[in-house]
Amino acid sequence: MPEKCAVFVSGLDASIDVVGGKWKVLILWALGGGSKRFGELRRAVAGVSEKVLAQHLRELERDEVVHRAVHEAVPPKVEYSLTPSGATLIEALRPLAAWGCEHKTRLEEIRGGAVCVDVG
């Protein structure tokens, strides 16, 4: 059965659909530093399982914000990088990251000592 197409009512819901979930923004942020292999991404995004990372990478590739390059080698070498669209998405996320850096201490206080991990 074909995948159901999303109908977006605004640019905001289209954007949130692409980056939604716990891990996608962190995956994109890690790729903002340059191409990475799967294992490098797994280490860069602490706590993500292999299954979830693979699923999110497929979704980000489907949405054309991540490029998957397979290099002829034994064993096969696969690298992930941002597409031009993904690079513009990183630029859109920078103000959100700045807001988080500015407010994370207060968020930790009001949430009872929740731990925030700085992603850059």
From TrEMBL:
Record keywords, A-Z: DNA-binding, Transcription, Transcription regulation
Entry keyword Transcription: yes
**Top-level taxon in the UniProt lineage:** Bacteria
InterPro entries per the UniProt record, alphabetical = HTH_HxlR (IPR002577), WH-like_DNA-bd_sf (IPR036388), WH_DNA-bd_sf (IPR036390)
Instruction: Report the Gene3D superfamilies cross-referenced here.
Output: Winged helix-like DNA-binding domain superfamily/Winged helix DNA-binding domain
Question: Which Pfam families does the annotation name?
Answer: HxlR (PF01638)
Q: Which residues form the HTH hxlR-type domain?
A: 5-108
Q: Does the keyword Cell division apply?
A: no
Example of a GO MF term: DNA binding
PANTHER family cross-referenced by the UniProt entry: TRANSCRIPTIONAL REGULATOR, TRANSCRIPTIONAL REGULATOR, MARR FAMILY
Name of the protein in its database record: HxlR family transcriptional regulator
Organism encoding this protein? Pseudonocardia hierapolitana
